[in-house]
Amino acid sequence: MKPSRFRYFLARNVDEAVQLLGEQGEEARVLAGGQSLMPLMNMRLARPSALIDLNEINSLAYVHPWDGGLALGAMTRDADLERAALAAERMPLIVEATRHVGHPAIRNRSTIGGSIAHADPAAEIPAVILALDAELEVRSVSGSRIIAAKDFFQGPFQTSLAPGEILTEVRIPGLPSRSGSAFLEFARREGDYALAGVAAIVTLDEDGTITSARLGLCSVDQTPVRPTSVESLLKGKRPERDAWKAAAEAVSASLNEPPSDIHGSADYRRHLAGVMTERALALAAERAERNR
Amino acid sequence: MEDEFIPVRISVNGVTHRLFLESRRTLLDVLREDMGMTGTNAGCEHGSCGACTVLFDGKSVRSCLMLAVQANNHEIMTVEGLAHGGEMHPLQQAFWEKQGLQCGFCTPGFLMTAYELLQQNPDPSEEEIRYALSGNTCRCTGYQHIVEAIRSAAQSMQQQAAVTAPSETTV
Question: What ipTM goes with this model?
Fold first, then answer.
């Protein structure tokens, strides 16, 4: 249970970090909060040749207003995001989901950027930023580019980050007025990865009809899932039980092949995904009605 | 690849340690093996059990999920830092009185987690205590007595604070 040897570099700023990552080649890894990478290294499932440590780059840890929503520095720790007043005011969904990431001692280290770049299909934050239509700023020695969340997650632990690129900022556009959101998950124990988790955002018009519904699911496929066909079913419907039921059935039917393991069979996860969808949509709509 | 040794300065319980460390060593192993502080226990070594919890700049962390070189110029507090002058910390006293342990292996992790909780929330409800403890595993007690011990410590710490506060204001 000890990591294999690696070269260690403490980056003082982003320029230095991308420089080092470029120099150290494809076997090098970026060390963010380390709450996923370190267990993998302790078990030697990951054996990076070099680590570029971002933990002392304080300029990458912030919660700023952006486009009615938020711009989050990639090294913002989950515990800080959980307590950020601006995040609670503008994007309660991300705060609600962050409270499901591991345990308090994990969240004291874990970062939003690390969670996204690690791209664990069971992780909450990737599903949430997918539902929120976030955009991701990535940097390398050759400059920066923006990747939409929907193009970022390519497979289990696989992203569209190119070699030498570091995720630096997560930008979440603001929600329209009369929107409500909810994140719900079902896990065996507090802090465990969910068997199924759902982020829902519902927007209503003046007479209370659904103008848009967005969903993001974790733990039910090889990547976080955005069931857009189900979202379009809800458009123009009244925010009532029948609509949620139909959406839940459509979500269950739309899933490819949920993982099956000792914690839950594929069928059970498919069922749970529906139940969590129904509840998350109902709660999000209830909150939207209060946000008049 | 050759071993690479990095000079570090780490403060543990107020004492500064200067060491040359191989980068791949965890904070947990350096505390136990290089500094001889075996109060922090090595349980699962992959962040699941919480036995190795210490405070890093005042915040609880898994010491098995940090490299020791990352503690350079930072402050660590371990379970050895709780007692002062041979007198147990109110949390330790409460774990003793309420029998908040059986084998004791997980206890240092629980104490450090509870220490952080009471710093942030001096009067937690039972639910808040249980939520805070969710990342620490105990295979003996069933948690009941641990929760009671933390409730009891919270009360005695608040009483102590109430006793000392007025005298401070009169000085």
Answer: 0.94
